[in-house]
Design goal:
Helix content is 13%, strand content 42%. With 170 residues, the chain is mainly beta. It has one helix at 2-23, and strands spanning 40-51, 64-66, 71-78, 81-88, 94-99, 110-115, 125-128, 134-135, 137-144, 147-160. The protein has a single domain (40-160), classed as Immunoglobulins (Immunoglobulin-like), CATH 2.60.40.10. The N and C termini lie far apart (113 Å). The strands form two sheets. Strands 1, 2, 5, 7, 9 and 10 form a six-stranded mixed β-sheet that branches. A four-stranded antiparallel β-sheet has the order 4-3-6-8, with no helix packed on it. It comes from Ananas comosus (Pineapple).
């Protein structure tokens, strides 16, 4: 008799637990599609001037004019692996190098080098920065239509003419 009572008690306890599980309100969590990975790129900008020459875009405070067509090269190292990317300056001396191939590089392993424009070959002595190659300085993160871009600046590059006077036009 005691065994029947124990069996009945066990069955009723199991039934009560099942009812509790199935009849209690449940939390339903909606799981959406996973977000696609964010695409990330790097942009490096700078500007190139020729000191003492008064050409279009001349800046009186700097006593310098922008150098159009100068070649900026971004070089990044990661152990034995290296990447070089180039861009030309526009009419305002501005350059922008954009890439998504630098995901394994750190900014402190990158430098920007500038060669003056072939059309302004007389302005070919680097005055600033004093050492070849400028380090990158973080500016901001930009939201672009295709993802995010970390924008860095290499700053200003200033060249001086190798001759005492500048030509009348570039």
């Amino acid at each position: 008799m005691m065994a029947n009572w124990l069996r009945l008690f066990t069955l009723s306890l199991q039934l009560a637990l099942l009812l509790l599980v199935f009849l209690s309100p449940r939390r339903v969590v909606a799981v959406g599609l996973p977000k696609p990975p964010v695409k990330f790129s790097v942009g490096v900008e700078g500007i190139v001037f020729c000191k003492r020459c008064k050409f279009p875009g001349y800046n009186r405070d700097m006593d310098a004019s922008p150098i159009p067509g100068a070649i900026a090269t971004l070089r990044c190292y990661n152990g034995r692996r290296a990447v070089s990317l180039k861009a030309r300056t526009d009419n305002n001396g501005y350059f922008l190098i954009q890439t998504s191939s630098l995901t394994t590089f750190t900014s402190n392993k990158c430098r920007v080098f500038v060669k003056p424009s072939p059309t302004t070959s007389y302005c070919n002595i680097l005055v600033y920065p004093r050492s070849p190659g400028a380090s990158l300085k973080f500016e901001k993160v930009l939201k672009l239509p295709f993802g995010l871009e970390g924008l860095y600046t290499a700053g200003v590059f200033v060249f001086a003419p190798s001759v005492p006077t500048c030509p009348s036009h570039p």
